[in-house]
Amino acid sequence: MNYISTRNKKIKVTAAQAIIKGIAEDGGLFVPEVFPVIDKSFLQTLYTCSYQERAYKILSLYLTDYTEQEIKNCIANAYGNNKFDTSGIAPVIILKNNYQCLELWHGPTSAFKDMALQLLPQLMSTALKKTDEENNIIILVATSGDTGKAALEGFCDVPQVNIVVFYPDQGVSDIQRQQMITQKGDNVKVVAIKGNFDDAQSGVKNIFNDKTFACTLKKAGYQLSSANSINWGRLLPQIVYYFSAYADLVNNHSIQTGDKINFAVPTGNFGDILAGFYAKKMGLPINKLICASNSNNVLTEFLTTGSYDKNRQFFKTISPSMDILISSNLERLLFYLTENNDKQINEWMDSLNKTGHYDVGKQYRSKLQNLFFADWINETQTLEMIKKVYDKNNYVIDPHTAVAWQAAENYKKRTDDNKTPMVVLSTASPYKFNDSVLTALNVNIQGQNEFTLLKKLKKYNQQNIPAGLSALEHAVVKHTDICQPEEMADIIKKYLKI
Asked: Which of 61, 90, 128, 261 is most buried, by the most CB atoms less than 10 A from its CB?
């Protein structure tokens, strides 16, 4: 299987090359030249499998230049060795009112990003060996909270790789910040920027597109890659848990093979829900993908009107991983909708870069509306949903999950679709956002630090405090740098001493 660029479909690379590069030379994103299609018999083979075995069956359809043993070794290293606090890796929890909750936060950093970022370093290390790549890889990451720590954890001390993470100084939770600035490892660098996530993401994209900077790195023996979901090796593992959730629902007799289900996904950069779209494209029986946004509702507007406009007020919310106005992975979706029209993609992305806006027109708007239901949730509604879910189910969710849950309820009310099973993707442990969650539960948090709040939230939450979060209380701060967005390239050169 080859991978092509969304901005020039004549560019073709192998899976290993796509994973090493992260982004195409023309600034496009790599997508499979063709998508594998599965049938009911394939689905049925998943039912008796472990999560690791399910992952192999999906990944092997895409990583055709990797050997069977290479893929299995990558999966074992990612999801084995007790890195996840449950043997199910991504369990489905059955709750009331025909809701199922897909818990994606049982990994080492307590966020769904672990599902991909424990595997991506393994895939990349294997790719470096397969391609005889001699340069050191510099992983550049812009994070709105969870990606940064998950990438740091996954790439920590990986040979032939350095990782530099940029995060918005005032745009992450206290726990998220503490996770990043205390990160150990000889190959890691963490830098706060004076701006929001979009400033960090734009800065990283500008660095990727700077050919002079690339030459400077190459002369010093380095080349850039990414751990954001623009990297195919980051997006691919996320397809797996949609299939795994479906298999679990069959196993617990919630559905039968062939029954359709809905997924509600809290969405920022559009990677998580795009993985669901790809699963549906492969043949997984998905009825509707519910795209849930917070007050930064650029995606809701786009999916309902076909008009994308980032020229709007930016809101700092209690669901910071969704505080995004430029959703990079939409480019992949648009490439599919236009039947691989790379010329059209270039026009839209050029308009977005120059004006902050593009419109896909009536034809594609109707396609978007058929594929997705989109809604956005404000802060008050988010807090109310956390309380509502707790009161009804004695189950604690984080703000991102609450946004998806409310969008799922809105979908049911507006469509009268109350029979199709609803799977809400729970993307972070509530312990990562204990201040917001406790506030929602009407608990006084005034004057208490995040570690006191961790213990207080344990009184309400049946889940234990993740070991990685409780250990932060006495962790040593190792990263204190802060810069303006335009200084990011200089920070990287200083770190690499070039």
From this structure: 90
What are the tens digits of pLDDT across the range 89-111?
999 999 987 789 999 999 999 99
CATH number of 92-111+236-468: 3.40.50.1100
CA 363 to chain centre: 29
What percent of the chain is predicted at pLDDT more than 90? 94
Strand partners, 100: 94, 423
Nearest to 224 by CA among 481, 14, 25, 13: 25
Nearest alpha carbon to residue 30 among 51, 15, 49, 50: 15
Cβ–Cβ contacts within 10 Å for residue 71, how many? 21
pLDDT at 480 over 90: yes
Terminal alpha carbon distance of the chain: 37
SS3 of 18-62: the string is: HHHHCCCCCCCCEEECCCCCCCHHHHHHHCCCCHHHHHHHHHHHH
Predicted confidence (pLDDT) per residue in 285-323, tens digit: 999 999 999 999 999 999 999 999 999 999 999 999 999
pLDDT above 80 for 136: yes
Average pLDDT over all residues of the chain = 95
Residues near 5 by Cβ (< 8 Å), separated by ≥ 6?
11, 24, 25, 26, 28, 29, 30, 342
Which of 21, 113, 280, 412 is the catalytic position?
Answer: 113
- List the domain boundaries for the chain: 92-111+236-468
Instruction: Please name the residues in contact with 335: beta carbons below 8 A apart, sequence gap of 6 or more.
Output: 6, 29, 31, 341, 342, 345
Chain segment 337-387, per-residue pLDDT in tens: 999 999 999 999 999 999 999 999 998 999 999 999 999 999 999 999 999
459-479 as b/e: b if 16+ CB within 10 A:
ebbebebbebbeebeeeeeeb
Where are the alpha helices (H) located in 161-270, listed in sequence order? Answer: 174-181, 197-208, 211-219, 232-251
Query: In whole angstroms, what separates CA 181 from the centre of its chain?
Result: 21
Q: Token digits for 356?
A: 């902050």
- Whether this model's pTM surpasses 0.85: yes
The contacts of residue 29 (CB under 8 Å, 6+ apart) are 5, 6, 23, 230, 232, 328, 329, 331, 332, 335
The sheet carrying 136-142 orders its strands as 222-226, 136-142, 161-168, 188-193, 482-483
What mean pLDDT do residues 183-191 have? Answer: 96
Which two tokens mark 111? 């966020």
